[in-house]
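Course exercise 7: structure representation. Students receive a sequence record and must write out the corresponding structure in token form. The form below is the worked example handed out in class, using citrate lyase holo-[acyl-carrier protein] synthase (173 residues). Read each field label carefully; the graders check that inputs and outputs are placed in the correct fields and that the protein name is recorded exactly as given.

STUDENT ID: A-19
EXERCISE PROTEIN: citrate lyase holo-[acyl-carrier protein] synthase
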Amino acid sequence: MHDAPGTSLAQILFSREQRAAKQREWVNTHSLPLVSFTINMVGAIKKNRIAKVAFNKGHQAIVDTCARLNLTILKTDRVEADTGYELLLLIDTSDVHSLKRAMVEIEETHCLGRLFDIDVIGIDYHPLSRQSIDQPRRRCLICEQEAKSCIRQQNHSVHQLIKKMTELINACQ
Ligand SMILES: [Zn+2]
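STUDENT ANSWER:
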């Protein structure tokens, strides 16, 4: 594994701000929804083999799903920064809930879907929740609890999470 430089909190916050600004700009200009895709990485290193494999497979799955649903991707921006991989897509649709359902289906059924964080951002600039399409919240990678509560309570070590991610990658070829 090539070690990428570790990432500081300041860098992560700055990249989040930049991403949010880009999202606002695209929505403003086009009045269309966006798909924003990142990898759920743990620890300080956001750019490694696990993240890269997962990101490429996720990108492909999103493109394939859009093609299957006849959704045109009008614009693509792919960022490979030290703070992690980010994909932003502008989608030609007025049906954000169907788009959200299709993206949740990828997260739930793809062999690496549990590593994917695929947001659908509506023209009100807000990401749609899973509840808005009557889907349960995401579960943790390791146990059956809600992912958010495990992250907040730090229920699992970084080592444990990386091990689980590596197993998923190796099982998904
Ligand atoms: Zn857990």
